[in-house]
Amino acid sequence: MLENIAIVMVNTTHPGNIGGVARAMKNMGLADLRLVEPKIFPSEEAVSRASGATDLLDNAQQFSSLEDAIADCQLAVGTSARERHIPWPLINPRELAAITAPLPSTTRVAVVFGREDRGLTNEELQLCHHHVNIPTNAEFSSLNIAAAVQVITYELRMAALGLGEQTARPQWGTDWDIELASHHELELMFEHLEKVLVDTEFLDPDNPRQLMPRLRRLLMRAVPDKVEVNVLRGILKSVEKKMDNGHQ
Q: Side-chain half-sphere of 167: how many Cα atoms within 13 Å?
């Protein structure tokens, strides 16, 4: 499972942090490092901080957007240090590990880390199924990104080795029969849903009132598989067909 877990860093400012994250990942047996528009990379400072994990830097993939970076992932989890305007399913690192451990070994998981100074935007967090928060000391909660990666990847490794405490509620009661939908497939579904809601005048694009973020939260919380996404899109196509026939 660990080989299919990607650590995604968004708009990293300090290249040394990329090296520190690479080292933390290699300590725990992860190798898939993805960078979204880093400010400086490649960098000798990153190499220096990697301390023997330069192979992860050499193989790191770079992307122009978070959507592209997680397009092939079936489960995306965004790190968040604070509550948002629209609450999202919030878990701690041990609960994250308990969720990922039972997944089929082919499931691609992305754990997304934001900018050093302000983390991930609301829009970026809404691309994720869950948000993970490290319960640090409230009086001194600032945590270096490499340290945060170390904490989370430690829990993921412990769960993968069967040594972790399974404290999360089971997400799936049995081995799942269908592969989970990829992020790309989910985004196509949300685009289709928004179009139909606008066409049926249920959604006013000039006054959306957080409708799409709340629908996104509802459907992402369910972690739909490929067949379920196809069923939902089939329903939307049926609505479109009825509307087209009614306009003839």
A: 11
Q: How far apart are CA 79 and CA 28, in angstroms?
A: 18
Q: Give the range of the structural domain holding residue 23, as residue numbers without chain letter.
A: 2-160
β-pair partners for 185: none
Q: Are residues 121 and 202 in the same domain?
A: no
What is the distance in angstroms between the CA of the first residue and the CA of the last residue of the chain?
Answer: 52
Report the pLDDT value the prediction gives residue 170, as an integer from 0 to 100: 47
Residue 165 has pLDDT above 70, yes or no: no
Average pLDDT in the chain: 90
Q: pLDDT by residue (tens digit) across 173-212?
A: 455 678 899 999 999 999 999 999 999 999 999 998 889 9
Residue 5 contacts residue 100 (beta carbons within 8 Å): yes
Give the helix/strand (H/E) hosting 217.
Answer: helix 211-222
Locus of tokens 């945590």: 143
- DSSP conformational letter for 3: G
Strand partners, 227: none
Could you tell me the CA-to-CA distances from 10 to 13, 111, 204 in Å, in that order?
Answer: 9, 11, 32
- Using DSSP's 3-state secondary structure scheme, residue 109 falls into strand
Report the SS3 class of residue 52: coil
Domain containing residue 9: CATH number: 3.40.1280.10
